[in-house]
Amino acid sequence: MKKELKVSAIREGTVIDHIPTKSTFEVVDILDLRHHDNIVSIATNLPSKKDKKKGIVKVGGKFLTKEEVNKIALVASNATVNIIKDYEVRQKINVNVPDFIEKIIKCSNPNCVTNIEKNTMTKFYVLNKEPVKVRCHYCERDMPSEDIKLK
Amino acid sequence: MDFKKRDIISIRDFSKADLLHVLKTAKQMEKQKRNNLLKNKIMGALFFEPSTRTRLSFISAMEQLGGRALGFATSGVTSIKKGETLWDTIKMVENYVDVIVIRHHIEGAARLAAEASLKPIINAGDGANQHPTQTLLDLYTIQKTKGRLDGLHIGMLGDLKYGRTVHSLAIALSNFNDVSLYFIAPDALKMPKSYLDFLRERGVRFYETPDMMKYCSKLDILYVTRIQQERFPDPLEYEKLKGVYRLDSSLLPHIKRDMKIMHPLPRVDEISPELDKTGHALYFEQAANGIPVRKAILALVLGAVK
Questions:
Q1: Which strands form B221-224's sheet, in the order they lie side by side?
Q2: Residues in chain A closer than 8 A to B129 (CB atoms)
């Protein structure tokens, strides 16, 4: 198992592990990896002790920002983010859904001021982290995880 | 407690102590009809959506406190038509007035206005979301008629899905002890799950039924709402549900002698006028209570009373 994965080992970059299989390609989209010009390895439906099945995304030459990690938390709250330098894991970050989310998600209420008034930044309070449930700061609409759409 | 410069946007922002403080101030305001607490103060009434009761009662409240009011009653006369953003409109208006009352059909508009303005903003209704001064006057009315807010059995009937008054009232009542709520609505207009979850978290007892008669003998208050045509995405759905409940004298043998009927008005045909002269009708007094409550809010946020 370990040997097979070594094929796609990266020298510098980020490995996102323990992604729920249904969210693997969402992570690819969140990080806009279709346009990334370094190595990107995507694996899904891999066997996992923790979750039965999981996805892994490896991205060469990229270290995730806090905002990107927060976005991943919304679709993969149990993922781990490994920062790789010289083929070694230098830092392991457990993603964590923050208590307050700005900018990165869209309000599902079409009559919310954030969907109508130009240049309004979205803000959400996190009511529940597993499964994720948020409340819009403006229109006060509660959104369960299935309604959460990233901007 | 200092309300000076505070924005009044959502009933969720109020603690129990806040609610009681506003009600206490409203009681003082009711005793003294006219005074000069807000002399030389100007209220901007920005009504982007039509309103009769709320707009007129805010203007009357301001004038009874010796202040003045200016504004508009429809967005057709404003620069919004020319494409001006709400943010810019508020940034401009805040230079002309001391307090801004805003009603807007867009949900969250009042919260955004509060972020744009250094002057206090009072939400007079933002779409289907919040209308906090209505909730405060509802609480005031209940407290005035029953002498308390704890230990009451309160029914809410009609459109519990789209009706913002019942949503906010349920949230506000969750602050009080030993309150039981009875939600009476057809399946298509039931109280949304998010509010029921909230009540469960707060440990509030509640019951749901489509049958108006089921719990009516227990109630101290029955809060009736209109099935609001303008909130229905599908007109057919409205046609099916309008007129589903109609309160008339046939209800009288089944209710407590001191049960009171409330309604935020306007009513269509959900309460028969034959009930108006019974001791049960509280809706006109409820509308009148808008004045002392709005006077209290204006005087508090402008720092004229503490």
A1: B205-209, B180-184, B153-157, B221-224, B260-262
A2: 139-140
Task: Write down the ipTM of this complex.
Answer: 0.91
Residues B266-302 pLDDT 10s: 898 899 999 999 999 999 999 999 999 999 999 999 9
CB contact under 8 A, B105 and A140: no
Chain B contacts of A140, Cβ < 8 Å? 10, 12, 107-108, 129-130
Per the CB < 8 A criterion, the answer to whether B198 and B38 are in contact is no
3-state secondary structure of B16: helix
Q: CA-CA distance, B130 to B267, in Å (whole number)?
A: 20
CA distance B180 to A147: 32
Determine, for residues A111 and B105 on separate chains, whether the beta-carbon distance falls below 8 Å: yes
- What is the three-class DSSP state of B69? strand
Q: Who contacts B131 (Cβ-Cβ below 8 Å, separation ≥6)? A: B54, B123, B124, B125, B164, B165, B168
A137 and B CB contact within 8 Å: yes
**H helix intervals, chain B:** 16-31, 53-64, 86-93, 109-116, 132-146, 164-173, 193-201, 235-241, 283-288, 290-301
Catalytic machinery residues of B: 53-54, 82, 103, 131
Residues of A whose CB is below 8 A from B109: 113, 117
Give pTM, 2 decimals: 0.88
Residue B127 CB-half CA count within 13 A = 18
Q: Which residues contact B138 (CB under 8 A, 6 or more apart)?
A: B165, B169, B172, B223, B262, B264, B286
B68-to-B60, B61, B203 alpha-carbon distances in Å = 9, 10, 44
